[in-house]
Amino acid sequence: MPSHKLPTPESTHQEAPFEVFGYAPAPESTSIVSLAERYDCFINGEFTPPHSGSYFPTINPSTEEVLAQVALGDSADVDRAVTAAAAAFPAWSGLTPGERARYLFRIARIIQERSRELAVLETMDGGKPIKESRDVDLPLVAAHFFYYAGWADKLEWAFPGATLRPLGVCGQIIPWNFPLLMLAWKIAPALATGNTVVLKPAETTPLTALFFADICQQADLPPGVVNIVTGAGQTGQALVEHPQVAKIAFTGSTEVGKIIQKSLAGRGTHLSLELGGKAANIVFDDAPLDQAVEGIINGIYFNQGHVCCAGSRLLVEESVAGILLEKLRSRMMTLRVGNPLDKNTDVGAINSKMQLEKIEELVLSGVAEGADLFQTPCTLPDKGFWFPPTVLSGVAQSSRVVREEIFGPVLSVLTFRTPEEAVEKANNTPYGLSAGIWTDKGSRILWMSNHLRAGVIWANTYNRFDPTAPFGGYKESGFGREGGLHGLLPYVEISR
Amino acid sequence: MTPRLAVRKTYKMYINGAFVRSESGRSYRPEGNADMNLPLGSRKDLRDAVRAARQAQSKWASLTAMNRGQILYRIAEMVDARRDEFQEMLGGKPRHAQEVEDTVTTFVWYAGWTDKFQAVLGTVDPVAGPYFTFTLPEPTGVVGIVPPPSHSLLGCARHLAPVLATGNTAVILAGDADTRPQLLLGEILATSDVPQGVANILTGSVKELLPWLSAHMDVNAIDLSGCPEPLLADAERNAAENVKRVYRFQPVAPLSPYVMAEAIEAKTVWHPLAR
Amino acid sequence: MVTTTLPLSDVLVALPARIDTVAAEERAAALAKRSIKKESKLFALDLAIRCMDLTTLEGADTPGKVHSICLKAMHPAPNDPAIPSVAAVCVYPSMVSHAKEVLKGSGVHVASVATSFPSGQSFRDIKIREVEEAQRAGADEIDMVIDRGAFLSGRLDEVYEEIVQVKEACGSAHLKVILETAELGSYDNIRKASLIALAAGADFIKTSTGKLTQAATLPITLVMLEAIRDYAWKTGIRAGMKPAGGIKTAKQAIQYLVLLNETLGSEWLTPAMFRLGASSLLNDVLMQIEKERTGSYFAAEYFSEA
User: What is the interface pTM, i.e. ipTM, of the complex?
Assistant: First the structure.
């Protein structure tokens, strides 16, 4: 049997280069964010205490410090929120489209004006590097509202020959990896099409959503159009089960997505799901290798790998596996892991203890199965949740670390010999969210794009996002698209 | 002259391009038609049909759009040629002639869509950066269809044609009423250059077969338009097992390009743009 | 580490020149966003001076002008002994002897451009001769230009052979090979030219003559640094890098040093392995050092012209 074990590269690269030219700490100031001790639910335009009277702490995962207490919404709060949203629906959907557009433009502008504050808060609550929340998340959030603001008064031209009607109250449940961006992906198209929403942010990252509630107030958005109920899984479940909710939009794990789809069975509730992934990032021997390395790094270590479309499976053509891995390891030596608020940090904190334990368990299983482990050498802070950038090579298609979504900074490496084999391996997963292709050959890019069963294909790039470009999965990665023209469809009833 | 002794027809399901009786050896007599035995499909027939549909899918999708259009048009031609037979089977009334006519229209209409839906359901995405990005509609894969029973022929046509036009393959559960029109449609498909496995028509108990179809992990989408209400919740729950796309059109799918949107995936491709 | 030289064809096959433009530019832009503060900023500014090739390449250059620039090179801030000398003064061949005289014993090198700088469009023997004369006049370093005409018409062997001959003519002088990247048309070509120069024995590769409006950029430098790294991995031979042209601010200089630090590592953070070619950068660096030390922003008139 041919050995698919990767050749060991003879590394000539020096140790981590930071001893001589170590960058002094460059922390972003948190003084721009003023946090209250306690946050209530945002219902019908006002912050109101939770029915239960209970609050839960939200912490900074890089320090484990408590940032604030947040309302634990229960089914009574969800009911109040849905009722408020239902009451607001006739007026909101009856507004002239131009007025709806203006509200959304206004929100987009306020987000831009407050972008530094929101970026710092996003990093404090979620652990992602400030350079990402500042340069990626926040610009995309504002852009998303701008984009869908523009659709609000042009819906009659969106789908030729069709009439669009809003659905009603949309229940939206979002994850902790891109808290404010996922909020934007959910709320902007929903409001543009005339729906009202009840949004449930993730348990570990509720703060930017609550600041967004403040933005809604600042924008004079009519009460009840946007409602935010914080809480945990049960809060989300109450939202899913509420009979007045016309549509559920969920981003999160495939496991929970299936539970939601099941609990909606037979109810006629609209549903869109953006679920997990196990994307192949495929590197051919004619690829621009140094840029491919950047794409691999960006594909798996961006946002600590807490990305549903992360390029978590590196498929590399066997003839360049040695040199590519050498370059990858060398590049990993320069990754800066640590304080997410430091402007030079490349990889921040793992979002929660629970997630860290999941990552650790899976990596250990990989090592137990015989994988070779390589990690960025770095000193991890004592407090907080951390996992160094990791590569597992010498793994098999059947390994758990190749099949299961790790949702952390862990890359598994496999090799292939022909484009057909690459496609076969890439598609050999129940997921189908994204894929990467690295090759100099145009015809091969198109052929591969054609054959890969995934909703987003990045050729000679990775992890690019834009409000004009649809995003969403094939197979068990979900259905419905967010972004672009296609992103309108999950929020309208379409009749010819 | 002695009256002619008819040579009766054996009705068969259409699976993987072949006419088969149920592997189970079972048959049923539709209400009010004691003189005919129609195949009572089994879960193994269903399994075979899904397997055939899966095998046929990538090739069907990779035919040129023009070619798929010609095949759909050929279906319309063949239905047209046997319109009297269809009308007779449907009940022989003028409204049945209309149903046949609508069926012909449906196949002609979707024949023309095979190379146009991409322009309506695809986009070029003007992303803010040095990239060229576009979004193409692609078939979801294998689609299970429970057509609305109210129009035995037109229901099939309206729910099958958009699925085939976009490059999907289909397994139809035609139910256990008088399904002769659906079985005749199978004969039409067989003589219209539709490749084997692309469309499969099973007859028999929806109640018995739907749980297998809705839970089948190799089926990507399911059209539950004709699913009886008591079976709906279970079918949708089963469908969640592999995150199937679930949709319904009632009473029958309209002639609309947006029907095709139910069984397509949007694929977005990014590439850098530089000299 | 094994040190081996390889034939040009082997190098070009082993280290193919395929660069994705957008991704390379994004990587360089990302590195440019590094936030360099406090002591690391002072370290970088000090290093920028120590790695600087203070340059004057004017038709109007005179012994007087060269004299003045040499004094500035040795003592960028005469009142401040903590400020180091620059690495070298870069002049035309005719000015080498003047510069050598002023700089004698200072440790500041004399670099001379050569090979019919900046176009390189002359006869091979004249170019070789020019190198020999410059070296004889006291040049410690020779900054040659490659034959872009030969490169762009596909005569790669000629480009290579010329560099080999120039290297021979250099004797003990160090050879920097200027690619004039703005004329090469693509990052692929920049990488290819880098590898040709490296294989032919260049001690340094250098971006530009400074005579075109398009000169050094961060992504071009990144691509060249990666060529240096790949060549070193392949052969064990470590060459130096010199971005030149258009580098006018301390902020830019720091960005180049970050790029260097994160692509080749700390061993390249030395004048032996890295140079910044610049004519008007020095005072901005001095100004920034004062800013770091005192906390106040400065004005140009507090710093002497060369």
Answer: 0.96
